[in-house]
Structures are given as C-alpha cells and as structure tokens.
Specification:
Radius of gyration of chain A: 21 Å
Shape of chain A: globular
Order of helices and strands of chain B: HHHEE
CATH superfamily of the largest domain in chain A: Amidase signature (AS) domain
CATH topology of the largest domain in chain A: Amidase signature (AS) enzymes
Strand content of chain A: 5-15%
Number of domains of chain A: 2
Low-confidence stretches of chain A: none
Largest sheet of chain B: 2 strands, antiparallel
Helix content of chain B: 25-40%
Low-confidence stretches of chain B: none
Number of helices of chain A: 16
Strand order of the largest sheet of chain A: 4-6-5-10-11-9-7-8
CATH class of the domain at 1-44 in chain B: Mainly Alpha
Number of helices of chain B: 3
CATH superfamily of the domain at 1-44 in chain B: Glu-tRNAGln amidotransferase C subunit, N-terminal domain
Shape of chain B: flat
Strand order of the largest sheet of chain B: 1-2
Oligomer: heterodimer
CATH architecture of the domain at 1-44 in chain B: Orthogonal Bundle
Largest sheet of chain A: 8 strands, mixed
Largest interface: A-B, 73 and 53 residues
Structural class of chain B: mainly alpha
CATH architecture of the largest domain in chain A: Alpha-Beta Complex
Distance between the termini of chain B: 42 Å
Radius of gyration of chain B: 22 Å
Number of strands of chain B: 2
Mean pLDDT of chain B: 92
Distance between the termini of chain A: 12 Å
Helix content of chain A: 25-40%
C-alpha cells in the first residue's frame, strides 16, 4: 500500500481499523523524508526520534480507545512555530541555535490531538520572501521541477507536502505565504480569517497581517487540521473568541445557488491568457454544479502591493527590534559597547531581504515620513477592505488566480525585489482586509501546477472549504503528484 | 523618491543595523526603488478615510484579570542567551 497517497481521513480510518500502526506510518514518512530531503531541502530539522515517540504514544491512545480524529497522523511544522526543546530557526542565522523553551499554541493543540511531528520545514527568512530563496539554510526545490522554486515563504511546507514527504504541514500567510507556494506545488492551502488561529509562539513578522493555516493535498485534509488548530487563545491578544465550526462535517454543502464573484481586476491587466483560461475552466465546473457566476469589481486592488510594502515592513521593523543580541539569538564577538553589540549582532544575524524590509519600515515610520507613507497606506488599506465588503454584498465567494505564473526558475527574480514582490499581487488583498482565503490546484501549465484562489468574508472558512471540496469532488488536480515522487 | 548614501546610513542607524560597504550601496539602490514603487499610493485619493490599523473593525483590545499566570522559568529562558551570569544577562559596560 502507498501510505503517502492516502488522504488524512483515509489514514485515520486505516489507523482505527489496524491496517497499519502509527509507528509504521511514521516510519514510512520518516524514510521518505530522509530519502528526499537532500535534494528538496524542504526540512531545516528532521525529528525522527520525536516522531517515533509521538507515534508510540499515538498507538497507545489508539489501543485504549482514547484516540481523536488526528491521533497518529504525521505532520511537518513550519519552522516559524516554536517547538519546546526543538530548534526553531525561522530560516535565519539569527535563530540558528535557538531552542524554544515552549510550544506555540498551534503546536500545543496538534500535540494534544496526538499528531506525529516529522520535522520543521524550511522557509524564507522570517517569512519574508516569495520563493524560499532567502533562507539561511539554503533554497528549497520544487518537486515538480527541481530547477524551480516552490514559492514562499512556506516553501518547505509546500515542497514536503507536494512530494508527500508529509501528509500535511502548517504554514503562515502574511501576504500569500500559504497560498502562493500551495499553488506553485499543486497542493491546497488555507489562510483563515485574521485572529482565527492563535499567533502565540508563531514568530512575528507583521502582526496585523500574520495568520497561521494548513497546507495539504485536499480541502478535506485542510478542514480536518484547521478545526484542530483554530479557536480562541487568551495568550494572543488579537485572537478572536468566535466558536469554531466542525469544518470537516460541513464539507458537503452544495454550491447550488452559491454566488461566485469573479474579481474583474484579477482577470484583467496582464494576467497570462493561459492562466486565465484555467480559472475560467474552474468557473465552468462550478457553473455546472449550479453556482451563479457574477462579476465584481475592486478598483483599488492594484494598490494592494504598494500598500503592503509600507504596512508589512513598518510592522516588521518594530517586531524584529526584539533581536538585540542579548537575551536570545545571534550575538556578535567582542562588542566594544552596547550600540556595537546591537548593530553588529543584527547586521550579522539578518540576511539581505530582512535588512531591506527592516530599513524600509524604519524609513516609513521615521519623523517627517510617517504621514506620507504609513498613514496613507493605512487609509488605502481601509479603501481596499471596504471594496471587498461591497463585493461580498454581491457574491458569497470571490475567485481569481493565486499567482501570476507557475513556479519560476531558481535565481530568476532574486536580484529585483519589486519583481519578486509582484508575485503576491493576487494574494495580498485578503491579508490587508483580514479575510480567509485558500488556494486549490486547478490545472497544469507546461507541466507545472497553478492555483485557483477562493476568498471569503470574515469567518467564512467553512464556506471556502466546502466550495473547494465541491471542486475537488469533480476534478482530480489535487490528486496529481510530481512524477518523481509518486 | 531617491535616497542618498547618507540617508541609508541614517536609516541603518535608526534600525540598529551595521552594514558593509557593498550592503550600503546595494541598499541605496533597492530602497530607492521600493520607495518609488510605493509612491503609487499618492495617486489614490483617500481624503477623510480613517486609517485601518486592525483588520477586524469591531474588535476591542481585551483585558485580563490581574492575576499571576506565569511561573519563574528564567533558567530555561536564559539557556538561549550567549552571556549570562548569576541569573543576569551580560552586556558591555553602559555606565562609565
């Protein structure tokens, strides 16, 4: 049996009916991960001993009838989530030797659910990047074509799920970091509503935008894991106290009569006709199921990238000020005074893109420029958010592409930050407005996967997941594996 | 918006970053390009629009009861610091 091609629900059923044990399952994924990580580099840290200990505990729970729906399911954690006793690097030299003294809430909940930790996945440094080329621990390769990037910043999570080195992985999304890599590696990924999942123990990049989510082959897999990590957490002051629906139980909702809004600004203005054709084909699948396709307009959508590149760097410059070389993180040798300690520890510990964002943020927040940049960006953010709200009076779900192109070649965009930033042109809007959004595979272009993006109103995760599930009941793009990893 | 070398050195100082010679010249170019890119925002008329600091408009900052919830774990936390002595973080001399 090919354990790595089974869905989370099938794995759970197999564990309960004793077709295989959690230990056998863990061994299968440990072996795959160890065999393929040398080339793909999707993991920064593999934790096989931890995985086997988790699996033994899961087998005991299964035997005693105490198992939950995720008990014994292996998973990979993005290395942005603090894991008690395990190195947590955030892809940075700054945290190369940081061993977290506690678990992030997301980690704690998945431990409580009885999941099995395979390792910590590679990522762009401090989640700043769209290609996973800024990691201190080396670039990640796309399993569909190893000369290409997997997207970013959750590029390691995307690569290990795409190659089925893990059945599921966590990700975080500040401007598209779950959805864009999911699209580029042919998997599904959901970024929930801002505040839906606790950010406690998730290393901060831009606190008004950051949100944790799930990356897995299908919407059903995402639903099963999202319901385990979502929910109120008093330790995150922006966590929202709204009940969590049973997403997996609500997957069967029909799309008949659902108003699907095509965002005109997504489909015009330079979208590759071949990419647009895949989106239109997906809309046809929905129309065939009885959904109503409408067109909506968000005129300021084009301003989302410049808005983001003021707001996100500003918040990043504040958040990353905690890395001072004193309490944790990299510390320079022989500082001559305190200022030298700060400057050299940070100068040595951070990579080029992180420094670029910190400086952009410091500039837009500095005296004399705050109003022109930061305040203006927050106003445009309000406009974009209102346009989304207006669109949701005409449509229940908005759709468009996830990324402008399939995975690009390694090295193609590293020299020009603006070109790299424009990768997230379709994903950033949802972060600015705090909306839940997901990407699901919707076809191949020259043998490379592309994603369909679904965006919903606040707390409409259930609707997004069931809409995605309806598409996946009618298509099999989410079951396609890169040939080398089948 | 075009930044000078002096501007970049000033920003780097504000951000407490030491930069090498090559990093300063690279940052002068790339930060200028990023600022020129975000200058597109000037084209948007946002007169009278309230700045949006939080994506969920109706959320208020919560308060918690003023009770002790954390226990003393300084030994564990300080295990991640490079220089610690007698439970204190060591830094270069600040007061002469």
């Amino acid at each position: 049996m090919s354990l790595h091609t089974l869905s989370v629900a099938e794995l759970a059923a197999g564990l309960r009916s004793k077709q295989f044990s959690a230990t056998e399952l863990a061994r299968h994924f440990i072996a795959r991960s160890e065999a393929h990580n040398g080339l793909l580099n999707g993991y920064i840290t593999l934790t096989p001993e931890r995985a086997l200990a988790d699996a033994a505990a899961a087998d005991a729970r299964l035997a005693s009838g105490q198992a939950g729906p995720l008990t014994g399911i292996p998973l990979a954690q993005k290395d942005i989530f603090c894991t008690d006793g395990i190195r947590t690097t955030c892809g940075s030299r700054m945290l190369k030797n940081f061993v977290s003294p506690y678990d992030a809430t997301v980690v704690e909940r998945l431990v409580a659910a009885g999941t099995v930790l395979l390792g910590k996945t590679n990522m762009d440094e401090f989640a700043m990047g769209s290609s996973n080329e800024t990691s201190h621990f080396g670039l990640v390769r796309n399993p569909w074509d190893t000369d290409r990037v997997p997207g970013g910043s959750s590029g390691g999570s995307a690569a290990v799920v795409s190659a089925r080195l893990a059945p599921v992985a966590t990700g975080t999304d500040t401007g598209g970091s779950i959805r864009q890599p999911a699209a580029l590696t042919g998997i599904s990924g959901i970024k929930p509503t801002y505040g839906r999942v606790s950010r406690y123990g998730m290393i901060a990049f831009a606190s008004s935008l950051d949100q944790a989510g799930i990356m897995a082959p299908s919407a059903e897999d995402c639903a099963l894991f999202l319901e385990a990590i979502a929910g109120f957490d008093p330790r995150d002051s922006t966590s929202v106290d709204v009940p969590v629906p049973a997403y997996s139980a609500e997957l069967g909702q029909s799309v008949k009569g659902l108003r699907i809004g095509v965002v005109r600004e997504f489909m015009e203005g330079g979208l590759d006709p071949a990419n647009a054709a895949l989106i239109r084909a997906a809309l046809q699948v929905y129309a065939d199921q009885g959904a109503e396709i409408v067109e909506v307009s968000c005129p300021n959508m084009g301003m989302s990238v410049p808005t983001y590149y003021v707001v996100a760097p500003a918040e990043c410059s504040s958040n990353l000020s905690r890395f001072d070389g004193v309490r944790f993180g990299h510390r320079c040798e022989n500082p001559k005074d305190l200022m030298d300690l700060y400057k050299r520890s940070r100068g040595e510990g951070f990579g080029a893109e992180v420094k670029r964002r910190i400086m952009t943020g410091a500039y837009v927040l500095s005296a004399g420029y705050y109003d022109a940049y930061y305040l203006k960006a927050q106003q445009v953010r309000q406009l974009i958010s209102r346009e989304f709200a207006a669109a949701f009076t005409q449509a229940d779900v908005l759709v468009g592409p996830t990324s402008p192109t399939p995975a690009f070649k390694i090295g193609d965009k590293v020299d020009d930050p603006i070109t790299m930033y424009l990768n997230d042109i379709y994903t950033i809007g949802a972060n600015l407005a705090g909306l839940p959004a997901m990407s699901i595979p919707c076809g191949l272009l020259d043998g490379l996967p592309l994603g369909l993006q679904l965006i919903g109103p606040h707390f409409a995760e259930s609707r997004l997941l069931s809409t995605a599930h309806a598409y996946q009941q009618a298509t099999d793009w989410h079951r396609r594996l890169p040939a080398a990893y089948a | 918006m075009s930044l000078s070398r002096r501007d970049v050195e000033h920003i780097a100082h504000l951000a407490r970053l030491s930069l090498g010679e090559d990093e300063i010249s690279a940052a002068t170019g790339s930060l200028s390009r990023i600022l020129a890119f975000v200058d597109q925002l000037n084209a948007v008329d946002a007169t009278g629009i309230a700045p949006m600091a939080h994506p969920l408009a109706d959320q208020a900052q919560r308060l918690r009861p003023d009770v002790v919830t954390e226990t003393d774990q300084h030994t564990r936390y300080q295990a991640n610091a490079t220089k610690v002595e007698a439970g204190l973080y060591l830094v270069p001399k600040v007061i002469e």
